[in-house]
Amino acid sequence: MISETLRPSTAFPWFRVALGVIFLGCLLLRLWRLEQFNTLVFDEIYYPVFANRYLTGQSVYNAHPPLSQTLIAVGMWLGSWWPAEPDTVNGLTGAMRSTLSYRWLNAVAGAAVPVVGGLISYHLSQRRSFGITAALLLSLDGLLLVESRYGLNNIYLVLFGLLGHLALLQGLSDRPRPRVITRQVRWFRDYRGAKFAQLRRFSDWVSDRLRFRRPLKRGEYFTLAGFWLGSATAVKWNGLGFLLAIYGLWAIALLLNWLKPQALGFPGDRLATLSPLNLAFYFGLIPFLTYSLAWVPHLLLNPHPNLWQVHHQILTFHHAVGSSADVHPYCSPWFSWPLMWRPVAYFYATARNLSETVPAYPTLPPAAVQVVYDVHGMGNPLLWWGAMVAVIALLIQVWQTHPQERGIGLYLLCGYGANLLPWVNVSRCTFLYHYMAALIFAIFALAYHCDRHCWQGPLTRWPWGVGLITLCAVAFWFWSPLYLGLPLSPESYQLRMWFSHWI
Questions:
Q1: Which of 115, 121, 104 is nearest to 31 (CA)?
Q2: What's the CA gap between 145 and 126, in Å, rounded?
Q3: Where are the domains of the chain?
Q4: For 365-412, how does the pLDDT look when each residue is reduced to its tens digit (9 = 90+)?
Q5: What is the pLDDT of residue 188?
Q6: Nearest CA-CA partner of 482 in 348, 292, 389, 286
Q7: What is the 3-state secondary structure (H, E, C) of 91-143?
Q8: Among 54-58, 167-171, 258-262, which is the least confidently predicted range?
Q9: Residues facing 349 on adjacent strands
Q10: Average pLDDT, the chain
């Protein structure tokens, strides 16, 4: 792993500041006009409704594990204590609640995704430029923005899966972490005044116990990683893709070490040092226990059917779902996702002017439509297509690089493949948002190429990196009305629908 010299204590922490600015920008964008549609948007007809039933003690059945609706229920309970405007309150969940109450926690989770992604990229390479580039590109994606502005569940799966990988990389890294003595304790210990001898003795006792912030040990990081990965699976079963990526990289690393030692760099070389028993414990048993514990609140309210029976029901439900357009007009096969062939319309409403309440019923005739409100579950096209090209380039170049860079490339490819290829054998109707977990690693690949070939190259290549980020930012701005549900004229709406299969 590329080593990094520890910064002096007086150095400006621009990396942390940059991530903090990205987080605040993402959070403000997700909270802005969050309550504008006083209704249930897309799959909000499920998750906030199920969450409200948890709060009111009613029975709940869902085709997915219960963690996401449990978290939404916590957000709804906290949000019930906040003042709300009357026009933002509805009873569609089964109780009178504001739209903000079942959306705000998703917004916070979504704002954290680019930051966690930036930290993962940094720990992969020890290059802050890679971390900032990845965080910036993640903050410019539309589907991540849409999914975190409504009471849906996919953003939790992505966040928990990324937190699991971040904890894994922190555990694999052996970079020393400075211990930090508290200012108050240091001040008391350095004081030599005779009048405060007793206070000084007391401060010595305190400093012996609180003197240093102890860094987590390797096993503790792995335990935390197992917890987060189990939590991702407790949101949806496809959260197992994050675990599958770790097992895949471990197997590849073992094979390469056997064929040609020192052929692979971080993180694969460190992961290969884990014994099968340790791997099974940290990334098998702990995720399983976490997944099981996530069912406890649900089973306390719904003791029947039991845990085994409810899993059988969920599996039966997914097997019974068809895959044709007759099942759902926005079904899309897995191989079309990287091209963003079939986005999903989450919300669509029309009005005669900006002062009309939306949504209004019945639907206006086409001739009377002057304003269109549309929330489209679509990504940033330039970012997605660039990420797809970056994955292909990484697949071609991964064996032509330094072992350290090869380790990073294989990690990204394992993460991408493990979250995409299992969908090949899925027979039920699938949607574009099922690509979100794989998309994260594709964006990492794009940021990696940008960092390696632009920021780490001569200054003459920097304009290419600046141009890439600028194009993604302009595209994000252009399609932002479809992410945020802003009013558009019919002509402006059609201008953003480049292909008929997007509508």
A1: 104
A2: 28
A3: 180-214
A4: 888 889 999 999 999 999 999 999 999 999 998 887 787 888 999 999
A5: 42
A6: 348
A7: CCCCCCEEHHHHCHHHHHHHHHHHHHHHHHHHHHHCCHHHHHHHHHHHHCCHH
A8: 258-262
A9: 373
A10: 88
